[in-house]
Design a protein that fits this description.
single chain, 157 residues, mainly alpha, 64% helix
Length: 157
């Protein structure tokens, strides 16, 4: 107490007021831990993207290298299912069903769009992407999108 103080003695804070906004490093190396749900999301995303990269490669090899068109309607649901299954396994059962299915469908659709873009680059870059895809695949593109999404839905369930 200072001379002239009339109230109770002042208390010092345990920590500075600005420290409450500091986020602790959650990495295991820093002594923190990751929450189960965020680690599951990252695992599901990694697994889904890895399988999607392989699936896009298969799609390109069949479409450009093998000149398969209608057969892609059989292949795309299998690729979508593989992505969905990878997301389900990568999430280790800790993701809610809606989040898991949504993530799988987004990754699988992105895989198909990426594969179609590579198809265009490899074989038809002299036309615009829409012109090329419509002239080569036509109504197969919406069918592939529908089937890859359905496969991902089933695989992630």
């Amino acid at each position: 107490m200072q001379p002239g103080d009339t109230g109770p003695p002042r208390r010092l804070l345990d920590r500075a007021p600005g420290e409450r906004f500091v986020v602790a490093d959650p990495s295991p190396a820093a002594g923190g831990h990751q929450t189960g749900r965020s680690a599951a999301r990252r695992g599901a995303l990694r697994a889904g993207l890895a399988v999607a990269a392989a699936g896009a490669t298969i799609h390109v090899l069949l479409a450009v290298g093998g000149s398969v068109q209608v057969g892609l309607l059989v292949v795309t649901p299998l690729l979508g299912w593989a992505v969905g299954f990878a997301v389900r396994l990568g999430g280790r059962g800790r993701l809610a069903s809606d989040g898991r299915v949504g993530l799988a469908m987004v990754i699988a659709s992105g895989m198909l769009v990426g594969a179609l873009a590579v198809n265009w680059l490899l074989s038809g870059a002299y036309l615009g992407p829409i012109d090329y895809l419509v002239s080569v695949y036509g109504v197969l593109i919406p069918g592939q999108l529908l089937f890859v999404g359905a496969g991902a839905f089933i695989g992630a369930r």
